[in-house]
Write a structure and sequence with these properties.
mainly beta; six-stranded antiparallel beta sheet; 8% helix
Length: 273
């Protein structure tokens, strides 16, 4: 199919929220939604996973393996990920990396002795910010944030610290794959022409941000693009879409988007279209 509207999967989480982002109905009373996933017909075969996150409180401190580390453990791929911030309460933060270089032993001891949180670099975030988190980066998303997460399709998470909860930790694996130096963001590719901005460019995927209007989308054979409308509505290959949904596109298609649209477009690889 040249274009497919993906199914949505609402995921309840103890750290989720009862009031979500515009375009998403609030859950029934007594329930908290932490994530909304967009899934193709065969989700396990997809190279990417795109989701909205609605953290009402801090998520656990965690990291993820690289492709090479994951495949050495018999897993299909690692997990690079990135976050486009849509809303953030005053004082909202995301931790990415330690404040100062650490050893593996210091990381392990800090997790066991409840001091790890204070050794992380908690960066303030606001609507419009973007963060790329390569595999191995120690990180934790704070509460009061709404964001879109674009990631490699992997659920392998090594939980290093969880604020004293009874959830399982994965210190051995998490320490082994952790980057122990302060986080240095990759160079931002920036604007291309007047109508699109490259937020992230490889090596695992490319993420662009587009304004509304009409444009031709051309993808190489075998490559799939993921269109995520933050705002607005439109049609591609006869498939109507609106904010809060996700459409996959293949081949060459004409995209019609409302003038007020704000769009993310993701695809695997490094080649620009």
């Amino acid at each position: 199919m040249p274009a497919t509207l993906l199914a949505t999967k609402r995921v309840e989480k103890p750290w989720g929220r009862a009031h979500l982002f515009p375009g998403f109905p609030d859950p029934p009373e007594g329930h908290k939604i932490g994530e909304v996933w967009f899934q193709p017909a065969e989700p396990d075969k997809a190279e990417m996973l795109i989701k909205y996150l609605f953290p009402g409180e801090r998520l656990s401190v965690q990291d993820h393996p690289s492709d090479e580390q994951a495949q050495a453990r018999g897993l299909p791929r690692g997990k690079d990920e990135c976050w486009t911030i849509l809303e953030a309460e005053p004082g909202a933060t995301i931790a990415v990396g330690p404040k100062a270089p650490m050893t593996q032993e210091e990381l392990r001891e800090s997790a066991e002795q409840n001091t790890l949180v204070d050794k992380l670099d908690w960066k303030p975030v606001k609507a419009g910010d973007f963060l790329y988190c390569p595999a191995g980066t120690i990180h934790a998303i704070g509460g009061g944030i709404t964001c879109i997460e674009v990631q490699q399709n992997s659920d392998t998470t090594y939980r290093l610290y969880d604020y004293g909860s009874d959830r399982e930790l994965h210190l051995k694996d998490g320490v082994e794959v952790a980057h122990l130096e302060p986080y240095v963001p990759p160079p931002a590719p920036g604007r291309v022409g007047d109508d699109r901005t490259i937020l992230a460019e490889g090596p695992r995927f490319v993420l662009e941000r587009w304004p509304g209007g009409e444009r031709r989308v051309t993808l190489p054979k075998g490559k799939t693009g993921w269109l995520v409308p933050i705002r607005g509505e439109g049609v591609v290959a006869g498939v109507a879409w609106q904010a809060g949904e996700c459409v996959t596109i293949e081949g060459e298609e004409l995209l019609h988007a409302s003038p007020d649209a704000d769009l993310l477009f993701a695809y695997t690889g490094t080649a620009r279209m």
